[in-house]
Amino acid sequence: MRVLLDECLPRRLARDLGESHRVTTVPRQGWSGITDTELMRRIPDEFDAFITMDATLPFQQNVSDLGFILIVIRATSNRYETLKPLVQGILLRLDRSTGENPVFVSDPTKHES
Question: Which of 14, 94, 105, 109 has a C-alpha 20 to 30 A away from that of 77?
Fold first, then answer.
């Protein structure tokens, strides 16, 4: 599966996810700074999934029929140390996607308010 990580996520996360998927980042793709609308338009041509921490994205864009899996990570920070424990959950969502968007991944030991 071809996976794109948003520019707000640490690059090291790509290594952890890349063992079973082909993963790159928005900056490596040369797409830094483009609008969310343009990003959503470009992704389906080159990727099967997009991973972000932008919780507002599903409310700004029509995400029901994107043509790719949209995974939104819910975490207290975007630091690698915070996100690394979520890798297995992300991989599970990628492998078992039903096509419904967005897909949320959060730390099951943390309770959201």
Answer: 94
Say how far apart CA 20 and CA 41 lie, in whole Å: 25
Backbone angles phi, psi at 62, to 5 degrees: -80, 105
Tokens describing residue 49: 């999934």
- Which one of 3.40.50, 2.60.40, 1.10.8, 3.30.460 gives the CATH number of domain 2-106? 3.40.50
In the prediction, which pLDDT does 26 show?
97
d(CA 93, CA 72): 11
Q: Where are the domains of the chain?
A: 2-106
CA–CA gap between residue 81 and residue 47 (Å, rounded)? 26
Confidence (pTM):
0.91
